[in-house]
Amino acid sequence: MSSLTEKDRPVVQLLLNTGTCPRCVLRFCCVGSPMLYRHPHKDLMKDLQEFLKNSQQEEDTVCLDVADPPCKRIRLEHSEEGADDMNHNGAILQIPSADDGSAAMEGSPGKVCNVCLGILQEFCEADFVKKICEKVNSADYQFTSFVFSVSLPPQLSVRERAAWLGLKQEMRNLGLPLAKDDIVQLKEAYKWIIHPQLSEELGVPADGKSLFEVSVVFAHPETDEECHFLATACPDCFKPAKNKQSVFTRMAVIKALEKIKEEDFLKHFPCPPSSPKNPCDALEIQCNNGAVFVAGRYNKYSRNLPQTPWIIDGERKLESSVEELISEHLMAEFKADSFNFSSSGREDVDVRTLGNGRPFAIELVNPRRIHFTVEEMKRLQQAINDSSDKIQVRDLQLVTREAIGHMKEGEEEKTKTYSALIWTDKAIQREDIAFLDDIKELKLDQKTPLRVLHRRPLAVRCRVIHTMKSEYIDEHHFRLHLKTQAGTYIKEFVHGDFGRTKPNIGSLLNRTADILELDVESVDVDWPPTLAD
């Protein structure tokens, strides 16, 4: 059972007479029953009026018959010290009689709450809930549950503190005790009211672990004005941020409230808080789906196609890329806002990727569509393959964020197989290159290549050529098949990069060598799983 007791009577009366709404009154009385907050505003006001009218001799407890689960709460009482006996205006409030209190309450039904600024009033009504649901439905998302989040104006923390301090000093003036209990968080009370209404309208349950988020951002025109005194008292708490329109963020205000002395707060802000000029505004109603991840393997058959868009000094060098040829189809089908492409290593623009392909993953940000059958994924893969002869995709599938870690592990830990067409300045015979086949586990020292020095830090990296197999073509050409440690720069291993890679094919053959063509024949990463055709 959740109940209001005689000790709550002066709290209820003081708050109602200073312009506090019924739900905020319940919060300050530490009522932790979600069902009670869902009662209509008018009914709650009547219940509180009846509570005040009841004779203390008849019954010392008025019970409201609802369930009483545990609740989350926030502690506002930070100090053991007392404050001035007078409120901000220098007057001591007297507890009016029950009759006077009822008359005052009935006279201002549309008044904006001086603590929640209307959050627990009009924004809990069915009309606002329908407005949220209309926004969600018009956005055309796929979802089977939702999580609801709310952003509140920072000065609500200030007003809550002011209401508490006002209560504290008035109760002390009357010689009545005020328990140092915790009040129910405004956000928590608001969600208690909103969740069942949204669930009913949307037809899906609220779930704290849901990937589909419905959020409401509330704002108030007097935020800066009401928080300004905190910046004077605690200037180190408020520092301009690039992406923030105001220094008065929620965290900054909370930090300042923790630092400011009680007597300083009472000097600069009315306690209890005065009635606001305006209610809050619902600035934004937003929807967002958690990212979806798609993985697969790609083959690249063109020697004129970069993996990602090739842009230098703002100028695009080539018209397309592997990333774009794959992602444009995924973006259209998943109806996502944006994407992030990653892969197990990368090949140069003039390097082909053959064999079973290179593993890749694409993060689709805020997708509207998230459910795809195996057959639908196969059709999507076919559409990508039919759109270009430069690439082919296989094993296209939905994966989890965690699974992508398997791909990234392979970048440095696994092996890769290459085929290089090599030219030499001096004539060679078969026996001149045959010894390369016998070299095993050749260790290299590779200083960052000149061609990538603009985007990679200067360092000497130790890499290993596990095996080599030569294939003689003519006096100046041969093909070399290599199995190497992932991350080995093959082009530099061939020509030496002006001595930055040691040893190299040129130094091993004692002549100048250069690479004419390079193919990636396999990327030995066992991910993503192979799918049946």
TrEMBL record:
Entry EC no(s): 5.4.99.25
Record's GO cellular component terms: mitochondrion; nucleus
Enzyme class: isomerase
Main location as per UniProt: cytoplasm
Pfam families: Pus10_C (PF21238), Pus10_N_euk (PF21237)
Keywords: Coiled coil, Cytoplasm, Isomerase, Metal-binding, Mitochondrion, Nucleus, tRNA processing, Zinc
Domain Pus10 N-terminal eukaryotes residues, every copy: 113-287
Coiled coil regions, renumbered to chain: none
One of the protein's GO biological processes: tRNA pseudouridine synthesis
GO molecular function: metal ion binding; RNA binding; tRNA pseudouridine(55) synthase activity
Protein localization: Cytoplasm; Mitochondrion; Nucleus
InterPro entries: PsdUridine_synth_cat_dom_sf, Pus10-like, Pus10-like_C, Pus10_N_euk
SUPFAM superfamilies in the record: Pseudouridine synthase
Catalysed reaction, written as an equation: uridine(55) in tRNA = pseudouridine(55) in tRNA; uridine(54) in tRNA = pseudouridine(54) in tRNA
Residue ranges constituting the Pus10-like C-terminal domain according to the UniProt record: 293-524
Family: Belongs to the pseudouridine synthase Pus10 family.
Record's protein name: tRNA pseudouridine synthase Pus10
Originating species: Pomatostomus ruficeps (Chestnut-crowned babbler)
Lineage of the organism: Eukaryota, Metazoa, Chordata, Craniata, Vertebrata
GN (gene name): Pus10
